[in-house]
Design brief:
- The chain is globular, with a radius of gyration of 22 Å.
- The longest helix is centred in the N-terminal third of the chain and has 18 residues.
- The N terminus is likely disordered.
- By secondary structure, it is mainly beta.
- A hairpin with a 7-residue loop joins strand 10 and strand 11.
- The chain has 2 helices and 22 strands.
- Helix content is 6%, strand content 36%.
- Strands 4-22-21-12-15 form a 5-stranded mixed sheet, with no helix packed on it. Strands 14-13-16-17-18 form a 5-stranded mixed sheet, with no helix packed on it.
Length: 395
């Protein structure tokens, strides 16, 4: 009996260790670094019953059986689910739950991940061989059966099939998305990131913005989009061209912005579902609150998205407007972006704060600036945060 207990403890420890870290299986010479998101954020219902469930398998350099049906690939990202609204600066999905569903690649996959590159933590990017590769994305059933074990007829429902070139030591983010809401055409954006090459300051938050919504989404009917009862301003979508303004607030005060930081223009966005160009990064001060000690701050960010011709001063819509006709959207970056935080600002989508507060050195917490990407896709806001390495806590 004692031997059984010991064996069980050893097995449990091994499972725990495996669930808490990425396993480095092999060495890749001259790798590229790749992160993949499934932006197909629609729900299959009566209005679009003929569409496939947006649950995918990604095969890089696929391997076929004698009948030409995929059975695997040099690299496989299986169970690729719709992305979550927040992509954190570390691989938090490992060991987070027992579901096989993966909100991004590599996400939960045990693969060799990126290094610290010019101070930035790339552990949320997978190492892949550089060079020319075939990318095959397939629909798959939403179950727990690994792709190679599915029936042949379920391994051959192709979503996208393309060839991409990945350069050594470069950082890439790949997006699978819907290009046209009417025709349901799908596509891929491959973005070669440059944040690790820029002279960025530790005292500034950086953010860039993209509108990756489908053509025709914002002016489709609420019934088609399933947004009839949705009280989020952004849910029905935004127009193709929009301007973004930001305000900074402190603590739980939602009524009074920091002096000098209310409704400031920060960027313009144009709808794009094809080009992988990197949008310019804009900056926001880390310690905008003059009363902070330069170590920790409780400041958070509010963003208004308005059509050209509108500004926060002449905006005719309030935060409980039933329909803004694509002219107005609102999102805030507050705390952890949880469901409870939605009560902070009526009508807003809530994602986590762009300022990371964490125990570092002798300070608990200490505030750190980050590099961020905001992507607006068919009524949803997605935030990706990248962080520099920081000193470990001292207890």
């Amino acid at each position: 009996m004692y031997k059984q207990i010991i064996h069980c403890c050893i097995a449990a420890c091994a499972m725990l260790m495996a669930s808490c870290s990425k396993v480095e299986y092999t060495q890749i010479e001259n790798p590229a670094y790749l992160r993949v998101f499934n932006n197909l954020n629609y729900t299959v219902k009566l209005e679009n019953k003929d569409e496939q469930q947006p649950f995918l398998t990604m095969l890089i350099d696929p391997v076929m059986d004698n009948d030409g049906v995929p059975v695997g690939g040099a690299i496989m990202g299986d169970f690729l689910d719709q992305r979550e609204k927040y992509a954190p600066p570390y691989p938090s999905h490992i060991g987070s739950n027992t579901s096989v569903n993966n909100p991004e690649y590599p996400g939960k996959e045990n693969v060799l991940v990126g290094p610290v590159l010019n101070g930035f933590d790339l552990s949320s990017w997978a190492q892949v061989p550089s060079g020319r590769h075939r990318f095959l994305f397939l629909y798959r059933p939403k179950n727990g059966i690994p792709f190679p074990q599915l029936e042949a007829r379920l391994r051959n429902i192709v979503l996208l099939d393309t060839v991409m070139e990945l350069d050594a030591k470069e950082v890439y983010t790949m997006h699978v998305l819907q290009k046209n809401f009417r025709t349901k055409e799908k596509g891929i954006i491959l973005r070669q990131e440059n944040f690790h090459k820029l002279p960025l300051s530790d005292s500034l938050i950086y953010v860039n913005f993209y509108n990756m919504s489908s053509e025709g989404y914002w002016n489709a009917s609420a019934t088609e989009k399933g947004t009839e009862q949705n009280q989020i301003l952004m849910a029905p979508g935004i127009r193709d061209n929009m301007n973004i303004y930001y305000s900074l607030y402190k603590g739980t005060d939602v009524n009074q912005a920091l002096t000098g930081y209310q409704d400031l223009y920060i960027a313009s966005i144009q709808r794009n579902t094809s080009a992988g160009n990197v949008a310019p990064y804009q900056s926001i001060p880390l310690f905008a609150d003059t009363g902070s000690d330069g170590i920790h701050t409780e400041v958070w960010q509010r963003f208004s998205v308005l059509s050209p011709g509108l500004t926060p001063n002449n905006n005719p819509y309030n935060t409980n407007a039933p329909d803004t006709y694509g002219n107005y959207g609102l999102f805030v970056c507050y705390a952890n972006g949880t469901a409870e935080d939605y009560r902070m600002v009526q009508g807003a989508i809530v994602v986590p704060n762009m300022i990371v507060n964490i125990h570092s050195g002798i300070h608990n917490p200490r505030s750190f600036a980050t590099v961020n990407t905001v992507e607006i896709v068919n009524g949803m806001v997605y935030l990706t945060t990248i962080q520099r390495k920081y000193a470990p806590p001292v207890y």
